[in-house]
Design brief:
Layout (H helix, E strand, L loop, with lengths): L7 E5 L6 H12 L2 E4 H14 L7 H10 L2 E4 L2 E4 L2 E2 L7 H10 L3 H12 L7 E5 L2 H5 L5 E6 L2 H14 L6 H17 L12 E4 L5 H15 L4
Parallel strand pairs: 1-6, 1-7, 2-6, 7-8
Antiparallel strand pairs: 3-4, 4-5
The protein binds 2'-deoxycytidine-5'-monophosphate.
Length: about 220
Amino acid sequence: MTGPAVPVIAIDGPTASGKGTVAQRVADTLGWRYLDSGALYRLTALAALREAVPLDDESALARLAASLPITFAGSRIFLSGQEVTDEIRAEMVGEAASRIAALGALRAALLDRQRDFRQMPGLVADGRDMASVVFPDAALKVFLTASAKARAERRYKQLIEKGFSANLESLLRDLRARDARDAGRSHAPLVAAEGAAIIDSTSLSVQQTVQAVLDRWLATGYPA
Ligand code: DC
């Protein structure tokens, strides 16, 4: 079932703000579906890199995005039947994703793919424009942020844990550049949507942040 009757919690925020982990846990707690919209941009970027599609060829990238054979299976992600769960997290893929995410035709091509995730009993969606563009009628809108330093340190830990090499200084530099690009683009720039609850997780644990989102969800009184 799709449509306005299915409640959505939209969680937007900058890169490495922890929104993926938080959104996934909120979804698990409520027994709802989860959409990692950034993964769709990363999958498109990975496919473009593999197929040597130029990262500024807007119509070719939009066609690619519309036809990508993607499967989400729990926390595992497959492209054309091949698992790419870790590969799409590499910095090079994130960088390419940030570049192609500035293209309007590509964003439009991913719109329906994102809205297809809206199914009963509810959806927790994380990204940059969940509250402003993809699910403007979301029952709860959260803008999750943290200081650039805290986010760089989290990303560093994540990469090392996954076996990638990483450098904290260059991560912080890249993260600031990506923030500027995500916030400065003309299509769906990263900004807190009107009516969004702003949660700063710099000094919160993951569990405290999850609780902060759940508290706000309860406070909506939905379905009332
Ligand atoms: O959240 P993430 O780091 O996995 O996202 C990768 C890139 O995709 C990020 O630089 C911005 C882009 N993105 C976007 O423009 N809109 C979304 N809803 C999600 C991600």
